[in-house]
Design goal:
By secondary structure, the protein is an alpha/beta fold. It is 58% helix and 14% strand. The protein is built from 12 helices and 10 strands.
């Protein structure tokens, strides 16, 4: 699977190098090399994130869920799994695999660091390795989306209620609560010590808290969309269509569509097989005076094999069929191959987001 590292990770790498370099210098007195060692810590931190995400991806693939890619960015990483886990148990293990491996690596590095000279380069690198993995593991176990702990919470609520949407809502609000806590922590710590929070602490709190708030909000929106997937049906979403031969003038095709209440025009060959669908925008661009002379075949898009959808397709199977071959519109057919209607992607998107269906019938 491809792994992408965004240029934004350099921002964190530079900050870690500058801040941690001074700490290494005080411990080991390496001079300028202390900042090289601090930069190595930044690399180890992102390598730990990569290993963490690989654990998610390997377990997901083991359950038969395809993984599009892994992306490392300024605040961590994400494994882009193309489908949701079908059961709360699989959701749990996919989510738990990352923190489990990170904490295991942290424990192993800690054991090695405990027997190494703490004031040597090797000892410092082992210290960095266990700290990096501990940070990645513990932070991701916090119970709120988009973190792994939020997915664990979602799996638990899903298991108890039998409703994945309820689990997503609980975990998303958990993420929002954590975001508020993260933003407030620098102020709480400073005031409890009788001081004032440092600007760096405030900035990091806002960045991390903002990341968590946006991630949980996006997760909540996605959950609302996913909750509508079981109700999607090709039969209900397809627009009724009228079939016409390819040499039919556009004006005549529109007249027939208006008489039959059709919202789409399908072009058929001499055997009655659908070969193309009239492109609404291209047809509308033809001036009224020319529509009686322009055949529908000249403003149509060909029906390919991937553009044909069975009328009884619904739910997850329907979404998977459409996303595997993204097209603006699909021909919906009966079991015997007869044309049932035309399914437009905008209508499916509108149904998934709760905005209702698209525009009305074709008209002149």
């Amino acid at each position: 699977m491809p792994v992408y590292v965004t240029s934004s990770w350099l921002i964190v790498a530079v900050l870690i190098t500058l801040v941690y370099g001074g700490i290494v210098q005080n411990r080991l007195a390496l001079g300028p090399s202390a900042y090289v060692l601090a930069f190595v810590f930044a690399i180890l931190l992102y390598a730990s994130v990569l290993v963490h995400e690989l654990a998610h991806s390997v377990v997901a693939r083991g359950f038969g869920l395809p993984v599009r890619r892994i992306v490392l960015y300024v605040l961590g990483g994400v494994s882009e799994i193309e489908r949701e886990a079908p059961t709360p148990g699989r959701e749990f293990w996919i989510a738990f695999a990352g923190p489990l491996l990170s904490l295991g690596l942290a424990a192993g590095a800690y054991v090695l660091a405990s027997v190494a000279d703490p004031f040597s380069v090797t000892g410092e690198l082992l210290f960095q390795l266990w700290v990096a993995n501990l940070l990645v593991g513990v932070f991701n176990l916090l119970p709120g989306l988009p973190l792994d702990g939020g997915r664990l919470l979602r799996a638990g609520v899903w298991k108890m209620t039998g409703r994945p949407f309820v689990g997503s809502v609980v975990a998303a609000w958990g993420g929002r609560l954590l975001a508020v806590v993260v933003i407030a922590l620098p102020f709480v710590f400073a005031w409890s010590a009788g001081g004032r929070p440092s600007p760096w602490a405030i900035v990091w709190g806002l960045v991390l808290g903002g990341f968590m708030w946006m991630g949980s909000t996006e997760a909540l929106a996605n959950a609302r969309v996913r909750a509508r997937v079981p109700g999607l049906r090709a039969r209900a979403l397809a627009r009724p269509a009228v079939t016409v031969p390819g040499d039919t003038p556009l004006a005549e095709a529109w007249r027939r569509a208006g008489e039959s209440g059709a919202e789409a025009i399908v072009v058929v060959d001499a055997a009655g097989t659908a070969v193309s669908i009239v492109h609404e925008a291209a047809a509308a661009a033809i001036t009224e005076g020319r529509r009686a002379w322009v055949p529908v075949s000249s403003v149509s898009r060909a029906v390919t094999r991937g553009a044909v959808v069975p009328v009884d397709l619904e739910g997850e199977a329907l979404v998977e069929a459409l996303t595997s071959r993204p097209l603006p519109e699909y021909l919906v057919v009966e079991e015997d191959g007869r044309v049932f209607g035309v399914l437009r992607s905008v209508d499916v998107n509108a149904a998934m987001t709760g905005r209702g269906q698209g525009p009305g019938p074709v008209s002149d």
